[in-house]
Amino acid sequence: MLFSSVTFLYCFLPVVLIMYYIAPGIMKNAVLLISSLFFYAWGEPLYVILMVASILIGYVSGILIEKTRGTKAAKPVLAVSLAINIGLLGYFKYSDFFIENFNAATGLSVPMLNIALPIGISFYTFQLISYLIDVYRGDVPSQKNPVSLGAYISMFPQLIAGPIVRYSHINDQLSNRKISFEGIADGVTRFAIGLGKKILLANQLGELCDIFRQSSDKAVLFYWMYGVAYALHVYFDFSGYSDMAIGLGKMLGFDFCENFNYPFISKSVAEFWRRWHISLGSWFRDYVYIPLGGNRVSKPRWIFNILVVWMLTGLWHGAAWTFVVWGLLFAALLVAEKIAAPLLKKMKILNHVYVIFVILISFIIFNASDLSQAASDIAGLFGAGGIPAVSPESLYYLRSYAVLFVLGIIGSTPAVKSLILKVKENKIGEKIVYAARPFAVIALLLLVTAYLADGSFNPFLYFRF
Amino acid sequence: MKFKNFIVVAASSVMVLAVSAWLFFGTPAEFSFSERRELVQMPEFSLSSFKSGKFMTDFDKFSTDQLPLRDTLRTLKAYAAKYLFAQTDNNDIYVYNGYAAKMEAAENEESAENAAQKIKQIRDLYLKDNTGRVMFSVIPDKNCYLAEKSGHLTVNPEFFADKIAQANPEIGYIDISDLLDETDFYFTDTHWRQEKITDVAGRIAESFGITLSAEYEQKTLDIPFYGVYSGQSALPLDAEEIHYLTNDVLENCRVFDYQNNKETAVYDMEKAGGKDPYEMFLSGPISLVTIENPNASTDRELVIFRDSFGSSLAPLLAEGYAKITLADTRYIQPQILGKWIDFSRCDVLFIYSTLILNSSEMFK
Question: CA of B162 to nearest chain A CA: how many angstroms apart?
Fold first, then answer.
């Protein structure tokens, strides 16, 4: 079920929230678990069994790891439980990629499995892994209540698109959380903002990307428009979903971590990744990069660590070579930035231009169906193949999407937030902001509903990751 | 609890719960007049439909279709696209100088090729030994005339004419593009106005060696006409009038609808009062229909392969033919037409709008 659907907004969510608020404290996790499984089953009726199995495996593993902690058995127990989780992820997500490459390398023709990927498996598997490792390290106790663990793993606000909420972050909240009007109001506001980002900006910019892809009237201008539109599309799509997840969390009394912090204002790729999909970056840092030795190793080993982390980051996003290259591009850039750090610091504005340019290129690779399309799209930016600088189609769509581009670019910076904070600095301004908030929320909900009524909905981009 | 928080929660709750109550307890609407389509109804639940995910997919469609004040919401979206985001079209529909039109951004080569081949198939099937004249024409869409002025994208009708001519060199081309401009079309609909295309009918008839007197009485339908773009644009467009041309010849013509196996009329007043008043012309989208003119000056017959534009054009050609047969191969397999049509001596006209030629996958 998509957050940006009428079914979720006007059928599922109100019913679940009413049940959740009515339920006594001890039952709230049960309501959350059942509604989350229903939410999951709506999109994956059969894979909900896999979800329940993952929860049970995680529950038993957590208790066993805790019981054996400090003994020789702890490591094998952790290894087996991680192998099961990673094995399931590997089987469902990477089998066909492996077979395809195996066939290509050997000349054999092992048949593809054509397995449908369970929604959100990458997200909930990573949550489970973080839970099991944290229990092994003794950072958190194992969860003794399977309902609470189930509620954590399957929690619908962050089930299909993150953020990847760490168990250590949410452990206390699972048993003790406060639901307040302030939290609900903040949650509703945050949810409406996320929904607006998704429907009003991301979806419309996504439509322009589709138009570009179908067009036979390509021009250099059109390639650049596509590059910018796609980068903004991914940002508003994903950060919009994260906003919705955080907002829903607040409505339910949870406090999830932030997942985006205006990444396009970064002055380096390293900074970009501290601001983009923060929960994934920190997950790889804490569970892969640092255990490999991080940067406190020899230079060759450090480069190796970077390559491993970023190849895995790429593969996490999808089972295709485009994602591997996408990840490795960031590895190369991060290594280069480390070497050329003094130079980067000297570039006042050029470092922004550099970051925007490489991010744009990276997302073109990210969205390409294969490496040859990626190469052709990047070449198109520079007029390869003798394509014209502009075409009637590119000029038309530039005119039609100009305001969306401007809104998207402004919206991807902290300008609006800064303005609101500035206005709130004096008391009259603060009153105006608070008075305007309910109108803004209702206006956003109405506008989003109008867009939903008008068109068929656009599947969420990160659905299959 | 601060009032500022309460008001946010209360306002959003009222809105969400009101829509929810409507969806759960309201009576589902059956038809959208603005979009001219049936609305999705509540799907039936079964274990198999749940397991396959069909129930959920259908429910999502149902809930979207049954949103309260759906047309008002669509209008709100159209205004947002136009004024908030300054977009130059809304779902490819735009309004310029009062004319609503659908933007066709580019020629679909595959579609044009397909249309040309479909015509060739009919020619190969029926017209090898035909002794009449065989011609084709392309009707430029309203957008072809508006786009240059409004700054929108358009297709070039000559592109389709060239494709058809390349695949069918034996067929003559009747160029009618210079006889039309946007004023020959309805403000709110795709179609051309019958009262404005007598010159088009005259040129087509001339191409077949027939001269039309073109003396008609213009009548006006007493029903407000909101064309197809009125609903699709979701903007409040004014109603307009449908005029139609008649004379003694047309009033004495006999029309037979082979699809429904019944007599009908050149101007079907029952259809005029229906969901789409333009269907009054030869009863709208019918696969096979004939107009027999007992007062014809010749015994010649004409077969028109056409789309809906042909429905308002054919009556204007009736004067010159004893029988006109209209075949719409979007609704009937051309292979079976031989059962009803004798192609040996008739004149044949292929006439399609650029809208259809650019989406010719609908041809059978």
Answer: 19
